[in-house]
Write a structure and sequence with these properties.
Elements: E1 2-6, H1 13-23, E2 28-31, H2 42-55, E3 58-60, H3 64-71, H4 79-91, H5 94-102, E4 106-110, E5 116-120, H6 138-145, E6 152-154, E7 161-166, E8 169-174, E9 187-193, E10 198-204, H7 208-217, H8 222-230
Parallel strand pairs: 1-2, 2-3, 5-6, 6-8
Antiparallel strand pairs: 1-9, 4-5, 7-8, 9-10
Helix pairs in contact: 3-4, 3-5, 7-8
């Protein structure tokens, strides 16, 4: 079984399209939150995901930007993110906002070998908001795993690829599809091969100029467009 991990699409439909060409033959898609926010194509991203969820095994959890846009909770966001949240709320279709409201905060998946995964955007301690960065000490990751009964923990939120192995257990972040922040502008995703238990982190180029242009034309902060070129 091939499991594709994606996260933090952030309304970047161009990046999602490029990644999808690489993962569409996977047996399972696990999406770790933040379908929307920042970018200029929220309805296109949500409708694509909604359509795929009807056709195949495609699990998705709610991220902090999904939550902010769906429920209007944006007081803790920086000014750029807050402006994007409010733009999304104005222009998104009501049925897509309702879809975001109904996304679960956590999901559990068990693969064909019996290995289990907890899917959560931030962390088990703060599902929507805690950042678990790759440079944290192992003691911190051990503490996080004490909240988890499943074998592996799948996270997003930091926009940085990460693999932490603690004994036989793993914490995996595939990085961001739509707004990478590790210095590489290309869209990020990961593949788990359950036959070998191997995790492969992947990158793919996409039409970043088109994605950036759409942000500017929508009247969103130019910074949100420019950062796409830098992967930050």
């Amino acid at each position: 079984m091939l499991i594709a991990l994606i996260s933090d699409i952030h309304s970047n439909f161009e990046a999602l399209q490029a990644v999808w060409k690489k993962i569409k033959h996977a047996d399972v898609i696990l999406c770790i939150g933040d379908l929307v926010g920042y970018g200029a194509s929220p309805d296109e991203v949500v409708e694509f995901v909604r359509d795929q969820m009807k056709k195949r095994t495609f699990l998705c959890v709610r991220g902090n930007h999904d939550n902010a846009i769906a429920f209007g909770v944006d007081w803790h966001f920086n000014p750029y993110a807050r402006q994007a949240v409010r733009w999304h709320q104005r222009i998104m279709k009501s049925e897509n906002l309702e879809f975001l409201r109904k996304l679960p905060v956590r999901q559990i998946f068990t693969d064909d070998t019996g290995r289990s995964y907890l899917i959560i955007h931030g962390s088990p301690r703060a599902p929507l908001d805690e950042y678990l960065f790759p440079w944290l000490p192992d003691s911190e990751f051990k503490a996080v795993l004490s909240y988890v009964r499943q074998d592996d923990l799948l996270l997003g939120h930091t926009h940085m690829p990460m693999l932490v192995e603690i004994g036989e257990r793993r914490i995996i972040n595939p990085g961001a599809v739509g707004q990478p922040r590790d210095g590489d502008w290309r869209a990020a995703y990961a593949i788990i091969d359950t036959e070998t238990s191997e995790i492969t982190f992947k990158r793919v180029e996409y039409d970043v100029q088109k994605a950036a242009r759409k942000i500017i034309e929508a009247g969103l902060p130019r910074f949100l467009a420019e950062r796409l070129y830098d992967g930050y």
